Amino acid sequence: MRIQVAIIGSGPSGLLLGQLLAKAGIETIIIERASKRHVLARVRAGVLEQGTVDLLDQAGVGGRLHLEGMRHDGVLLAFDGHSHRIDLQSLTGKTVTVYGQTEVTHDLVDAREAAGLTTIYEVENVSIHNIDRGSSYITFEKEGIEHRIDADFIAGCDGYHGASRSSVPAKAIRTFERVYPFGWLGILADIPPLNSELIYARHERGFALCSMRSATRSRYYIQCRSDERIEDWSDARFYDELRRRLPQEHADRLTIGPSFEKSVAPLRSFVAEPMRFGRLFLVGDAAHIVPPTGAKGLNLAASDVHYLFEALRLHYAGADDAALDAYSERALQRVWRAVRFSWSMTMMMHRFPDEGEFAAKIQNAELDYLVSSKAASTAFAENYVGLPY
Ligand code: APR
Ligand code: PHB
């Protein structure tokens, strides 16, 4: 088989790129390691920058998002027993939309199927070949039978643990990483959120986040040990710990109810440079990982997709390949700005047990300055709503 763009990975990066390319008349195929059921069941973050919303609209999949997504004009930062609202809209003129990544994935999968586009699920042993020559191709197995796809270009949208980045010779790639000494324990429950906007809380016992998926579905997180065992956390213990980390006015409003999803996620910052290797382009989590503190994971995948889609569109329109050649540099500039913001917010809001009391006082002072300075609040808001593409 020969295709214009072969996409490895059916997560948000691969699906959104595939949808945009298809609308531009560019042939794609997606090969995916997991089952369709697994892809659709993944629970991930839920805050979309306006740029991401615009891109989903451009891809023709914004319908449900505009019906069910919740526009948020502000976000609360809580510390020292009080919460402070950052008015994103008045400070930046922009807002964010709360809409689960699970829903984004569903919308993209549905659109791809409705367009009759091919996704091959449950593939194995994916290998990438000849990325430095004109005849690049992918091999993979499906039900024990080996297949080959020849492609003009290969989009490595296969996440942190995928085959794309690992197919690049070690001498051709540099990686930068920070692993944080804690994780996030998160639950989903069909209970009304305790607040209409997100609350990020810094507390001496640890970080907490109150988010949501709808007016009837809450998403809560608490900082935990990286090796925390879910079985050690009953719902009652989780809610008790969450309450203890929130200002009393919010803790008193917490509705509790049975969780239907509970998971622990480790936190890391990771960037691979460059993001292009001949005919292979790394996109999204395949090239970078951010701690979820700044809600940048999906939004960075979206900006990568924007840059790569525009470059491929120009290529197939007969323009020069300057945009393809500039992809890595353009994407990485926005990636590093978001990596910095996510790192900064993580360092400011989490408990670092080995850092001592001085560090805790500095964190409080940083938050105190942020919420009392229009300049500092504006800088925070600009990053949170998403820096320009
Ligand atoms: N072959 C084929 N598919 C693969 C392979 C492989 N070797 N390895 C991984 N995959 C698939 C995964 O099963 C997954 O469906 O690639 C997809 C990668 O999706 P994500 O990890 O979601 O990465 P991305 O699409 O870049 O989206 C980034 O998703 O994980 C969140 O927090 C992250 O919000 C961010 C967003
Ligand atoms: C979520 O709703 O899952 C969420 C929201 C904001 C974050 C991280 C996760 O920063």
Structure at a glance:
With 389 residues, this protein is an alpha+beta fold.
Describe this structure in words.
The protein has 389 residues and is α+β, with helices and mostly antiparallel strands. The chain folds into two domains: 2-71 and 98-177 and 268-346, FAD/NAD(P)-binding domain (3-Layer(bba) Sandwich); 180-267 and 352-385, D-Amino Acid Oxidase, subunit A, domain 2 (D-Amino Acid Oxidase, Chain A, domain 2, 2-Layer Sandwich), CATH 3.30.9.10. 37% of the residues lie in helices and 29% in strands. The chain contains twelve helices and 19 strands. The protein has helices at 12-23, 36-41, 50-58, 63-68, 88-92, 101-114, 235-245, 248-251, 297-316, 322-349, 356-372, 374-385, and strands at residues 2-8, 28-31, 47-48, 70-72, 75-79, 82-86, 96-98, 119-120, 124-129, 137-142, 145-156, 174-189, 199-201, 208-214, 217-224, 259-273, 276-277, 280-282, 288-289. Strands 1, 2, 8, 9, 10, 11, 17 and 18 form an eight-stranded mixed β-sheet that branches. Helix 1 packs parallel to helix 9 and helix 11 (356-372) crosses helix 12. The mean pLDDT is 97. Bound molecules: adenosine-5-diphosphoribose and P-hydroxybenzoic acid. P-hydroxybenzoic acid binds next to strand 14.
Query: How many domains is the backbone divided into?
Result: 2
Please give the number of β-strands: 19
Strand content: 25-35%
Radius of gyration based on Cα positions: 21 Å
Low confidence ranges: none
Helix count?
A: 12
CATH topology descriptor of the largest domain:
FAD/NAD(P)-binding domain
The proportion of residues forming helix, as a percent range, comes to 25-40%
Mean pLDDT: 97
**Biggest pleated sheet:** 8 strands, mixed
Query: What gross morphology would you assign?
Result: globular
CATH class of the largest domain: Alpha Beta
Which small-molecule ligands are present, each listed once? adenosine-5-diphosphoribose, P-hydroxybenzoic acid
